[in-house]
Every structure is written in structure tokens, then in C-alpha cells.
């Protein structure tokens, strides 16, 4: 989650082998996120991490790392900030792409972003997302919220197989 420590943490992750950094832009009602991300978002918001501060954090992180940086957030944040303005400002700050967790592929198709597909996605929806994704497809491995699990979801392998049949996009 974006915060004052993010540039240093990202640099450490890259030094440890990370080849991409996802940077959470906090949102007050993160429906797809589990308790860990929710608490991180609450903490970031309490520390004043609003969109402009997150973009500055992204800029500072870009100065420290030379791997793809991908902000992840929710559509309401872009709606409030302005769709085109957010895309432009994020790119200027160093974003490689965007992940908008609750924005289906057929809404705002002109916004370049990594598309998400889930075990509940139809083949038609997977094909649409694959055709519009920016770089790779983000596979949501289970229904419900994010969070630690003791084992991989049994839905993951069938989702990978279905998606591989429909696209050559990296997963």
C-alpha cells in the first residue's frame, strides 16, 4: 500500500529479486480485499494517502526502482479524480500500467490496464479481457476476498487451463 516507506520497501523487494511492483492506492471500501489489505488501506488513508500523495509516492518509487510499477485501486478513485487525468498523471509518475480491481473489461475500454479474470468468468469474458489487457492477464484465483490461504484454490488449475485455451497472453 502506498505510504512514506514504499520507495524503500520497493527497492528492497527489487534487490531481493522482484521483477514487478504492484502499488496499492488505498480506497475506503476495498470490496475485493481481505483483512490485511483492508487494514493497510485504512492505515494509509489515516496517514493522508490520497490520490495526489499516492501519485507522488509512485514518482518517488520510480526514482528508486527500474522494474514495472503497477498501481492497483478501484474504479471510484478514478471516477472521482477523472479517468483520463488519472491515466496521464499515473503514467507521468512512472506507472507501467494500471490494475482497477472492479472495472470490467467492457467499461472504459480506452483505459489501458491489466485485465482481471476469475473462476466465475465466462469464456467470452476471458476472451474479451485477453483482447484488451495491457501486458498480461491477472488471474483472480478464488471467489471472495483476497488473503492468505494454506493451499491453492482448486479453481486455479481449471481457470489456467481455460484461459490458456483462449489466449496466448501471459498469465
Short description:
The protein folds into 2 domains: 1-102, Alpha-Beta Barrel (TIM Barrel), CATH 3.20.20.70; 104-171, no CATH class. Helices cover 44% and strands 13% of the residues. It contains 7 helices and 5 strands.
Q: Care to count the β-strands?
A: 5
CATH topology of the largest domain: TIM Barrel
CATH homology group of the largest domain: Aldolase class I
Percentage of β-strand residues? 5-15%
Mean pLDDT: 92
Taking all Cα atoms into account, the compactness measure Rg is 16 Å
**Structurally, how many domains make up the residues?**
2
Would you tell me the structural class of the helices and strands? alpha/beta
- What oligomerization state is this entry in? single chain
Uncertain residue ranges: none
Percentage of residues assigned to helices? 40-55%
Helical stretch tally: 7
Please, could you describe this protein's structure?
With 171 residues, this protein is α/β, with parallel strands linked by helices. It folds into 2 domains: 102 residues, TIM Barrel; 68 residues, no CATH class. It contains 7 helices and 5 strands, in the order H-E-H-H-E-H-H-E-E-H-E-H. The strands form 2 sheets. Strands 1-2-3 form a 3-stranded parallel beta sheet. Helix 1 packs parallel to helix 3. The radius of gyration is 16 Å and the shape is globular.
